[in-house]
Amino acid sequence: MADRSKLCVIAALGTTQTLSWASSYYLPAILARPMAEALGVSTTFVFGAFSAALLLTAFLGPAVGRVIDARGGRDVLVASNLVFAAGLALLGLAQGAVTLVTAWMLLGLGMALGLYDSAFATLAGLYGKEARGPITGITLIAGFASTIGWPVTAAIDAGFGWREACFVWAALHLVLGLPINRLLVPAAPPPATGAAADTGDVAPRRALVLLAFVFAVAGFTASAMGAHLPGLLHAAGASPAAAVAAAALVGFAQVGARVIEFSVLRRLHPLLTARIAVLTHPVGAAALLLFGGPAASVFTLLHGAGNGMLTIARGTLPLALFGAAGYGRRQGLVTAPARVVQAIAPLAFGLLVDAAGPWALLLTSALGILALGGLAMLQVNEAASR
Predict the structure, then answer these.
(1) Would 2-184 and 197-385 be classified into the same CATH topology?
(2) Count of CB atoms within 10 A of residue 101's CB?
(3) How far does CA 44 lie from the centroid of its chain?
(4) Between the CA of residue 328 and those of 15, 61, 152, 333, 385, what are the distances in Å?
(5) What dotted CATH number matches 2-184?
(6) Which residues, 6 or more positions from 380, have their beta carbon under 8 angstroms from its beta carbon?
(7) Which residues neighbour 247 within 8 Å (Cβ) at sequence distance 6 or greater?
């Protein structure tokens, strides 16, 4: 019965996470252009508002984590559905730059309340150190957020318009996301007295900084590749059609790697799987730079697999290293830099690609090697502390 209850929670959070990601993070890729044309602003302005929303999410993350540590995550997730619905409705009603930016700020608040970090902290509060499996499970389901969200958003936009797409997603938060979070996610047990207050000193500051750096590297690389992968593959020698086809493999690689992590690698320490994950991008980049276009699919599969595993590590590694007490606050702290660099990566890496072409991958590869060094130092620290 306990396993059945846990599977129900995984399915519930996997569903609501898919909805939340599809209706926020993955929205601009489809709607930025029609929004800009209708509101008389540039597409860059729309993406700028989106980046500001990500920065707000990073700023609010630690505070949201503290609330989840103290009260559990169910009510926070329910609140996220209300905020998402309000932000999407306002976005659909926007008449100019001011309402557009205001709507994205509301969506930034919704992302702080309702994306992976909040779901991970909710699971840590429910299951403690046994939360690794559920964390992997919800990322496995929500890994299809772009696969589902982009076609749905594009179809509504093509058939009815971008405003109607916003309204449909807003309605789904109210009629689907909110009742699922409220009715199928249990309330967390109350924390032990003093537990939340003690956790800030349990995790060594150096370890937190190293972990934040690793996640920032992963966030920068994922955001940069998400924005520029087809063009990067074309610059490396793939034809436009081949570049698009290869880039489309990212989602399959992410989900495939999460299946492997959920099954074959689940008995390994998350630190070991994280080490494997950060190496895949540099190895794939080396293949692309050495062999050009014919290696486009190899690079995409390796990058996607590593990115999929690192998404899981973002939830499971802090849990394994520092425990469940105070998880939400720590999660907000160690992932805040990643959210900041995710906001700036598309522009910064785009400028580098314009200047250096595929050799821009030397930057992300070097960062990956440095992240591996950070994980090695975490391992030394963990061994030294026992």
Answers:
(1) yes
(2) 18
(3) 22
(4) 21, 9, 32, 9, 23
(5) 1.20.1250.20
(6) none
(7) 229, 230, 233, 300
DSSP alpha helix (H) spans, the chain: 2-22, 28-39, 43-71, 74-93, 97-114, 116-127, 132-142, 145-159, 162-172, 178-184, 195-202, 205-235, 240-247, 249-263, 270-291, 296-322, 327-356, 361-385
> Coil, helix or strand for 128?
helix
Q: Token digits for 172?
A: 């789904």
Report the alpha-carbon distance of residue 209 to residue 223 in Å, rounded: 21
pLDDT tens-place values along the chain, 386 residues long: 457 688 999 999 999 999 999 999 888 878 988 999 999 999 889 888 988 998 999 899 889 999 999 998 999 999 999 999 999 999 999 999 999 999 999 999 999 999 999 999 999 899 988 888 899 889 888 888 877 888 899 899 999 999 999 999 999 999 999 999 999 999 877 665 444 444 444 457 888 899 999 999 999 999 888 778 888 898 999 998 888 888 878 878 888 888 888 777 777 888 998 999 999 999 999 999 999 999 999 999 999 999 989 988 888 888 888 888 888 888 888 988 998 898 888 878 888 988 999 999 999 999 999 999 999 988 644 443 43
Joined together, the tokens standing for residue 277 give 């994950």
Q: Give residues with Cβ within 8 angstroms of 273, minimum separation 6.
A: 261, 265, 309, 312, 313
Q: What angle do CA 347, 348, 354 make, to 5 degrees?
A: 85
- Pair 298, 284: CB distance under 8 Å: yes
Q: What are the sequence ranges of the domains in the chain? A: 2-184, 197-385
In angstroms, rounded to a whole number, what is the distance separating the alpha carbons of residues 309 and 272? 11
Superfamily of domain 197-385: MFS general substrate transporter like domains (1.20.1250.20)
- Calpha distance 21→16 (Å, rounded): 9
- Write down the residue that tokens 């007490």 correspond to: 325
Which residue from 186, 212, 223 is spatially nearest to 331, judged by alpha carbons? 212
Tokens of 332: 């907000």
Q: Which residue has the tokens 């998404």?
A: 311
Q: Does the pTM of the predicted model rise above 0.90?
A: no
